[in-house]
User: What shape does this take?
Amino acid sequence: MDPTALPPGFAEQLADYTARAAAPAEPRSAASTVLLREGARGIEVFLMRRRTQMAFAGGMVVFPGGGVDPRDATDEVGWVGPSPAEWAQRLRLDDEGAARAVVCAAVRETFEESGVLLAGPDGSSVVDDTSGPEWAEARRALEARETAFTDVLRERGLVLRTDLLRAWTCWITPEFEPRRYRTYFFVTASPEGQHAAGVSTESDAAAWMGVGEALAAAGGTVMMLPPQYCTFLELAQYGSIAEILAAADRPIPEPVMPGLDPEGPSLVLPAHYAELNASTAPR
Assistant: This one.
């Protein structure tokens, strides 16, 4: 897959944006979590395919994630791990409240879309099973915005295990896209005993895929946007989940916002992604 190629539908959006001479939309904050496990295919990642009817990234394979809910910024949630101030440094944010909201959104969206919950009764444990009907109803109510994530945790005596997350990268949707996001990508090891299951109102298929398997299928049977594909290129440089988590124990790199190549309808990305693609992507 060529990560600089315009994804399906983007050429039309670019033409419309150019014709309207419109000002770019302000990006919304969002969070996405790369769930990792060690499997028969080496490092495996949990992926979901967005329904084709979705206005943004319809038909694309993505990691669990979504927009920040204003209620994610509350300080009422039990919190274990780096403080919001430390997370602000890791995410290159000036506002501790914004950092709290992004981290909370990462955990909430992961639970909504996969059923994996990075929370536990205390700072040394996580819930061991989230597959029952009570948990399914909690996921439904969260997705419908009928309840706040803080209420789901408080009612069950749980605290947020932010120490299980690592910030990976930040991508900003190109200016010509009418729906724009500033998405913070996190990595985490899927907790023992929990089972990811991702079909929801936003996705119609979900599965674990090996990193090499996903790279081989990208652009063919698996359609990805550049942030997801480039994330796989980065993950392929490591031999274990422990190595990935260790590499992410630092502030995220500068945000990536794909630009447009003035000589053709393609994206411009940081040069190291082209180098990774040339050395890593299957032929």
Notes: The chain is about 30% helix and 20% strand. The mean pLDDT is 89. Residues 90 and 251 are 4 Å apart (CA to CA).
